[in-house]
Prior knowledge:
Chain A is mainly beta. Chain A is built from no helices and 11 strands.
Amino acid sequence: EVQLVESGGGLIQPGRSLRLSCAASGFDFDDYAMHWVRQVPGEGLEWVSGISWVSVGIAYADSVKGRFTISRDNAKNSLYLEMKSLRLEDTAVYYCVRSDGFLEPTDAFDLWGQGTMVTVSS
Amino acid sequence: DIQMTQSPSAMSASVGDRITISCRASQGISNSLAWFQQKPGKVPKRLIYAASSLESGVPSRFSGSGSGTEFTLTISSLQPEDFATYYCLQHNTYPFTFGPGTKVD
């Protein structure tokens, strides 16, 4: 089955770090760029970060630049998001999303994981 | 950064209505635009990609059009399962940006 499964979310104090993981299955992971998208409950979608299939291309939203690091391990079919210096406003559901290319993809964001909730609170 | 705006932000509609949602980019994005539908507590579902291509399995009452800075999602005859929030996404230039959403109720 073609799917993405996120893990690693939870309750974390402000200023601490957390690492999210996304396990891909059912498709050739290293043929795709990957992204993280987040959503504060009850609010809109926000693109967070993206990475090309060989990790040469990486991009971040301004809101997380310098604090979050995206990475992938194609041998493990896995995507990661290392989040440091977490803030209250980072509280959201984090989705792992697939895209056919990193630069100007034509078949973007076709497959989404179920999401993992990150709650930043003291 | 490219800003995406959507109009209306919310709309009331009835089953059978033809509805149109607009999405505008602050600068040209060619056809690098996708539309998503999201229901409460659910994962976003892609409806349209490359501005006008219908996702496999999505009913033909959904259609997308536009290029450059102006885009439209049309539902030709609203069905009960279509009541949801709709988002556009530009994936032409980083940082990618979503529109703020249009709630159809």
